[in-house]
Specification:
Blueprint lengths: L2 E8 L10 H4 L9 H20 L5 E4 L7 H14 L2 E4 L7 H7 L11 H19 L5 E3 L5 H10 L5 E5 L5 H6 L37 E4 L7 H4 L9 H6 L9 H12 L7 E8 L14 H20 L4 E2 L2 H11 L6 E6 L8 E6 L4 E5 L5 E6 L25 E2 L16 E8 L2 E4 L7 E6 L2 E13 L2 E12 L4 E11 L6 E9 L14 E6 L4 E5 L6 E4 L2 E8 L4 E7 L5 E8 L2 E12 L4 E10 L2
Parallel strand pairs: 1-2, 1-7, 1-8, 2-3, 4-5, 5-6
Antiparallel strand pairs: 9-10, 10-11, 11-12, 12-13, 14-15, 14-20, 16-17, 17-18, 18-19, 19-28, 20-27, 21-22, 21-24, 23-26, 24-25, 25-28, 26-27
Length: 611
C-alpha cells in the first residue's frame, strides 16, 4: 500500500465569530445580518474556488444556519454537481437568530449541550438536511462528539459513516493559550483516523462488537512534536493555526510544507498509509484580517497551502477524497482495531528532537526521545472509560480521556522539591551514584513485524566516577494486547568486568490536567513467586516495600479502572513499590537487577481494565 489521503472540508458558516464579534457577544440587533452573511458566503466561495483550481474536491459540511439559507443550499448543490463535492453535515455554526429563538441558548459548543438539546438538534438538523437535499448526510462532525452521541446518531441515522469527532490535544495548554476562555478540554484521543469504541469516542474499538459504526477523524492533522510543549491549536493543517503560532515569515509559511511532508513520511510507520484533514470555516479569512495579519497574507496562505496539495496530487503523491469516500476506503483496507504509530521529528526548529506515538485498542503511549526514550504520556484505553460530556454530566467541559502518566502536566523527570513527577523511565546505579536515563538525549529508529511495532532508542552513554556505560533501550508494542516489552541492554562498559544496577520504574497518578486528583483507594503490591502479595491501600503515608526475586509488581488506580503491572522476563529481579505523599502525589512501582556487559533487563509492562 502507498496511500497519502487528503480530506478538505469547508463549511458555510453564516455567522463566523471572527467576522462579527458584536453578534458573537449578542450585541447586534440582527444576528445573521446581511453584511456578515454576504462576506461569509463570499469567503466560502473563495475557499472552494482555491481548492477546485488545484484539482481538489471538497466535503461541504452544512451548518445549522446554512441549512436555512437558500443561497448556501444552492451553492452546495452547484458544487456537488460541477465538482463532485460531498454535501455533509456539521454541528458547528449553530448560533443564529433561528437557533436562539428555537432553543433559547447562547451555547456555542453543541457537545456541551444537555442531552435533551443534543438529541433535539440531531433530529432538527438531520431532518432539515433531508428536506433541503433529498437525502440524509453520510458525514457529520463537530470539534468533539462523545460516544453517547455517536451511538445515538448511528442508531437513528445509520447511513452516517464518518465524523470529525475530536481535536487532537486540545487541553489545558490550549485553555491557557486562549486566556482561559476555551472551555472545553479534549486531550487523549488519536491523532489520525480511527474506529471509535462504543464506550468512549477517544478510544480505538477493540473488535466488531465494540465498533461504534463510524470512522472518526480529528478536526486537523497536528504537529506531533509541537503539541507536546505548545498549544495544539498553533501547529496544524490550517494556515490559521500556523499564523496563530507565529511560525511564518513575511507572507510565507515554510513550516506548512514541512508539516505536510512529515505526514507523507508517516506511511513508513503505518503500513503504507497516512492521512491529512484540512477543516476550515470562513471566519479566519475576513477582510479585516486576523492576529494582526492582513487579509492579503491570509488569502495567500490558503492559496499556497492548497497549491502544494495540488502539486502533490499531480505528482501522484496524494489521493484526494471526500469524507465518505475515505470512510469507505478505510473500512475496506483497515482493521477495526488498527494500531497507529508515528516517529516524528522536529519540523518547527529543525533540531534532532524526536518523539514516538503509538495507539491501539488498549492504550495510547507517547515516548520522548530527548528524554532518553522515557514514556511521558499514557492513556489506558483498555479501561474503556465512559466519559460523556456536556451539561448534566460529571465531566461537563472536560471531555479528556484521563492519563496515568503525563510528564508535562505532572512534573515528569524532575519536580522542584519532591524529585520525581509522572514518567515511565529507568535509572542506572553504580557505587552510590544514580542517573535517570531521561536525562540523556537520544534518537530512535523503527521496526515492525507480524503483530508488533518496535521503537529502538539509539544507545546513550552514562558517565560515573571511574566508569562509562552505554545502554540501548527498545520498546516492543504487542498489538492490541495491552503489553510493551521494554529492554535495557548494556552494550558498552569501559570496565568490562563491572556491574551496574538498572531500575525499571513507573511513577504514575491519574487526571486530565495539572492539578492533582485524589489517589485514596489506589493499591500497590509486590507479588512473590509463590503468588503471595504484599499490598497496601494508598493513604499518602510515604510507605515503601521491596523484596528479592519477585514475580511482578503492580498498582491499581480504581478511579480510571486501570491495573498496571511490571513483570520480569530475563532472570530474577528485586521488586518494590513506593507510596507517595501529599507534596508528591504519585505512586511508584519498579523492578531492579544488576547487569554486566551484553546483558539485558527485559520487563513486560501491561495495562488492563480493573473492575
Amino acid at each position: 500500500m502507498d496511500k497519502f489521503i487528503l480530506n478538505v472540508v469547508h463549511r458555510p458558516e453564516l455567522m463566523p465569530e471572527y467576522i462579527n464579534a458584536d453578534a458573537q457577544a449578542g450585541k447586534a440587533e440582527e444576528f445573521g445580518g446581511k453584511k456578515v452573511v454576504g462576506e461569509s458566503l463570499d469567503i466560502f466561495r473563495l475557499q472552494q474556488d482555491i481548492a477546485h483550481a488545484n484539482g481538489i474536491k471538497c466535503t461541504i459540511q452544512m451548518t445549522y444556519a446554512s441549512l436555512y439559507s437558500d443561497e448556501a443550499i444552492q451553492l452546495a448543490k452547484d458544487y456537488h454537481k460541477q465538482y463532485g463535492d460531498e454535501i455533509g453535515h456539521t454541528f458547528l455554526g449553530v448560533q443564529c437568530d433561528r437557533f436562539r429563538a428555537t432553543y433559547g441558548s447562547r451555547e456555542l459548543a453543541m457537545w456541551l449541550f444537555p442531552w435533551d438539546l443534543k438529541v433535539r438538534l440531531v433530529h432538527d438538523s438531520f431532518e432539515r438536511f433531508k428536506e433541503a437535499f433529498g437525502f440524509y448526510p453520510t458525514s457529520t462532525g463537530s470539534y468533539f462528539l462523545d460516544a453517547e452521541l455517536i451511538n445515538y446518531i448511528k442508531e437513528k441515522y445509520p447511513g452516517v459513516k464518518i465524523a470529525v469527532a475530536a481535536c487532537f490535544e486540545e487541553g489545558p495548554k490550549v485553555f491557557r493559550h486562549t486566556n482561559n476562555t476555551w472551555y472545553t478540554l479534549l486531550d487523549g484521543g488519536p491523532w489520525t483516523a480511527w474506529v471509535p469504541s462504543k464506550a468512549c469516542s477517544h478510544a480505538i474499538a477493540e473488535n466488531a462488537a465494540d465498533d461504534a459504526g463510524i470512522v472518526a477523524v480529528p478536526h486537523l492533522s497536528r504537529d506531533l512534536l509541537g503539541v507536546m510543549d505548545n498549544p495544539g491549536d498553533m501547529f496544524g493543517t490550517h494556515p490559521q493555526n500556523i499564523i496563530r503560532g507565529l511560525a511564518y515569515e513575511d507572507d510565507r509559511l515554510p513550516f506548512m510544507y514541512n508539516l505536510v511532508d512529515q505526514y507523507q513520511v508517516m506511511k513508513r510507520y503505518n503500513k503504507g498509509f497516512s492521512y491529512n484533514l484540512v477543516y476550515v470555516g470562513p471566519g479566519w479569512m475576513g477582510k479585516a484580517g486576523r492576529w494582526e495579519c492582513p487579509y492579503r497574507i491570509l488569502k495567500k496562505s490558503y492559496e499556497d497551502f492548497l497549491a502544494y496539495y495540488g502539486q502533490l496530487k499531480r505528482e501522484g503523491k496524494v489521493t484526494v477524497m471526500t469524507m465518505t469516500e475515505f470512510a469507505d476506503w478505510y473500512r475496506a483496507n483497515k482493521a477495526v482495531n488498527e494500531p497507529i504509530c508515528a516517529l516524528w521529528k522536529d519540523t518547527i526548529f529543525g533540531t534532532k528532537n524526536q518523539c514516538f506515538w503509538y495507539a491501539d485498542s488498549r492504550f495510547r503511549v507517547q515516548i520522548d526521545l530527548k528524554l532518553g526514550g522515557a514514556i511521558t504520556d499514557i492513556r489506558p484505553y483498555a479501561s474503556k472509560l465512559k466519559r460523556p460530556c456536556g451539561a448534566g454530566t460529571p465531566a461537563n467541559q472536560d471531555a479528556s480521556y484521563p492519563f496515568i502518566v503525563h510528564a508535562r502536566y505532572r512534573g515528569g523527570p524532575f519536580t522542584h522539591y519532591a524529585g520525581e513527577g509522572a514518567i515511565k523511565s529507568a535509572k542506572v546505579r553504580f557505587h552510590g551514584e544514580e542517573v535517570d536515563l531521561s536525562a540523556c538525549r537520544s534518537t530512535g529508529r523503527y521496526e515492525e513485524g507480524d503483530g508488533y511495532r518496535k521503537l529502538i532508542v539509539r544507545p546513550v552513554t552514562v558517565e560515573f566516577r571511574g566508569l562509562e556505560v552505554r545502554i540501548e533501550t527498545s520498546y516492543t508494542f504487542r498489538e492490541n494486547t495491552g503489553t510493551i516489552d521494554i529492554a535495557r541492554k548494556i552494550v558498552g562498559l569501559t570496565d568490562p568486568t563491572a556491574k551496574v544496577e538498572i531500575d525499571e520504574f513507573i511513577t504514575a497518578c491519574w487526571g486530565t490536567r495539572e492539578y492533582p486528583e485524589d489517589l485514596t483507594g489506589c493499591t500497590l503490591a509486590v507479588i512473590h513467586d509463590d503468588g503471595t502479595r504484599h499490598a497496601i491501600d494508598y493513604a499518602y503515608r510515604c510507605r515503601e516495600h521491596s523484596a528479592e526475586a519477585v514475580a511482578a509488581v503492580e498498582a491499581v488506580i480504581p478511579m480510571v479502572h486501570t491495573r498496571i503491572r511490571m513483570t520480569p522476563q530475563t532472570g530474577p529481579c528485586k521488586g518494590y513499590y513506593e507510596e507517595g505523599y501529599s507534596f508528591a502525589p504519585n505512586l511508584k512501582i519498579g523492578l531492579c537487577r544488576e547487569l554486566g556487559l551484553n546483558e539485558e533487563l527485559v520487563t513486560t509492562f501491561s495495562i488492563e481494565r480493573a473492575a
